[in-house]
Amino acid sequence: MPALPDILFYVFAALTLLCGVLVVANPLSRSPVTSAMFLVLTIISMSGLFVLLHAFFLGIVQIIVYAGAVMVLFLFVIMLLDLKEEARRKFKFFGIGAGLISFAAIVFIMLKSLKSAAPDANNPVGDGDTASLGKLLFTQYTLPFEVVSVLLLVAMVGVILLCKKKLE
Amino acid sequence: MHVGLEHYLTVSFLLFSLGLLGVILRRNLLVIYMSLELMLNSANLALVSFSRYNGKLDGQVLVFFIITVAAAEVAVGLALIVALYRKRQSAHVEDLTSMKL
């Protein structure tokens, strides 16, 4: 009888991968709204994986920032652009072939390298509680933290400039 | 079977390849952008699991920064897509070929 965290890992991993497939290639619908909704589900199940890895803070941040802010932005833009259902243009066999080959190649390379590296780390050691994460963030990583806040400001200014009626 | 580091890494690899497949296969600019988000998220998963199995929190701090940068990147990228749509009335990559030689 496997332990409960192991069962939960398999459940969340299967959910993540299934919803990821449905984001990329949904056989029933090709509208971007469906893809966005499945991306939300992917992100939520991935935050379940984060919690299983004892990264509680990041699990919550993942839900708030990605499923909350980023996906709302995506849906806003999709509704704003009023996209028609992606017309069933002729699929290019070149595209399908290139996509599947690169998919298989990347999976093969990564699994091969994982096998040769053979990480013997089967017992988790770290326990990422939020207090020590915050301590690390505000001592060792203070400069990157400030730089990232400047980056957010710059992005905000840039977006406002891009969305002005006339670009001089 | 006991779940270890390689299980999490396998999930991360598969998710990354799915994102790449979406970027190559899909023709809608917004769906391509969502696939890029998928790839970023798979990198986050790999970093968090490394951090968990190494006993160091630096990986989690890096994920925190990646999430912040991804949010900024999404805002700028979507603004670009909206500006492009205003000019061309299309968000389909096959209609945006003016840089093709």
Descriptive account of the structure:
The complex is a heterodimer of chains A (168) and B (101). By secondary structure, chain A is mainly α. Chain A has 6 helices and no strands. Chain A folds into 2 domains: 4-96, Four Helix Bundle (Hemerythrin (Met), subunit A) (Up-down Bundle); 130-168. Chain A has helices spanning 4-24, 32-52, 56-81, 93-117, 130-139, 142-162. The longest helix of chain A is centred in the middle third of the chain and has 26 residues, at 56-81. The termini of chain A are far apart. The model of chain A has no long low-confidence stretch (mean pLDDT 86). Chain B has one domain (5-90): Helix Hairpins (Orthogonal Bundle). Chain B is 77% helix and 0% strand. Chain B has helices at 5-25, 29-54, 58-88. At the A-B interface, helix 1, helix 2, helix 3, helix 4 and helix 5 of A face helix 1, helix 2 and helix 3 of B.
Summarize the topology.
The complex is a heterodimer of chains A (168) and B (101).
Chain A: H1 4-24, H2 32-52, H3 56-81, H4 93-117, H5 130-139, H6 142-162
Helix pairs in contact in A: 1-2, 2-3
Chain B: H1 5-25, H2 29-54, H3 58-88
Brief characterization of the structure:
With 168 residues, chain A is mainly α. Chain A is 74% helix and 0% strand. Chain B has helices at residues 5-25, 29-54, 58-88.
